[in-house]
Design a protein that fits this description.
The structure is a single chain. By secondary structure, this protein is α+β, with helices and mostly antiparallel strands. The protein has one domain: 3-Layer(aba) Sandwich (Aminopeptidase). The chain contains six helices and seven strands. A seven-stranded mixed sheet has the order 1-2-3-4-5-7-6, with helices on both faces. A hairpin with a 4-residue loop joins strand 2 and strand 3. The termini are far apart. About 25% of the residues are buried.
């Protein structure tokens, strides 16, 4: 059997001319995510609430997958040296959405997309203080995110909830991976983001 070859292009939503036509047939087997992409995503992009990137199959002129990110802050409670509770705040890149069309699933595309997220966050973390990538996973996606290095923030896993007779279909599970761990796993940012830039100074405006 010959290996499938793809010609994909990852582009920002803002650069897409005919967005409605491109996303019209997208179906990731999750109605809420499909609805967000088709009805809310352009609005959120214009309002700068999220940044969305689209993975386009150029050979077939269709959407294979997408992800949306923004910046958030996680507040946790810890004990100080006097054993008193204090709050700590942690900046993170929030992976708000990541989905692959059903026709492209189980082909490594989701893994490729999240690796692009990891490379992007390493660039962002160079310029802005960010400690981790954070997301809220559906129950069926927890194991996928574990395979690429994320871990549950706290609490039982979906399997543990299900073993006690709980339905996890409508639950979300907080997961994260630290920036330092991304480096340890061998992820690197795009080098061209770290070249020296010439800065023009207008000395006439003293």
């Amino acid at each position: 059997m010959s290996e499938e070859k793809y010609n994909f292009e990852l582009v920002p939503l803002s650069s897409v001319v005919d967005f409605e036509n491109l996303v019209s047939d997208f179906d990731c087997d999750n109605d809420d995510i499909n609805d967000f992409l088709k009805n809310n995503c352009p609005k959120y992009e214009l309002e700068r609430r999220l940044a969305t990137f689209l993975l386009i199959d150029k050979a077939n002129s269709c959407l294979a997958g997408f992800y949306s990110t923004n910046i958030g802050m996680l507040t946790t409670e810890v004990k100080d040296e006097d054993d008193m509770p204090i709050e700590e705040q942690h900046n993170y890149l929030n992976l708000a959405y990541l989905a692959v069309d059903r026709g492209y699933q189980r082909r490594g595309i989701g893994t490729a997309l999240i690796k692009e997220v990891f490379k992007s966050v390493l660039v962002i973390a160079y310029y802005v203080g960010i400690e981790m990538v954070f997301l809220q996973s559906l129950d069926e996606s927890v194991n996928f995110y574990k395979k690429v290095g994320l871990q549950l923030v706290s609490g039982p896993s979906p399997e543990e909830y299900q073993a006690n007779g709980n339905d996890t279909a409508d639950m979300q599970f907080d997961m994260f991976i630290r920036i330092d761990d991304l480096y340890k796993k061998g992820y690197l940012p795009y080098e061209n983001n770290f070249i020296a830039n010439s800065i023009d100074i207008d000395s006439g405006n003293k």
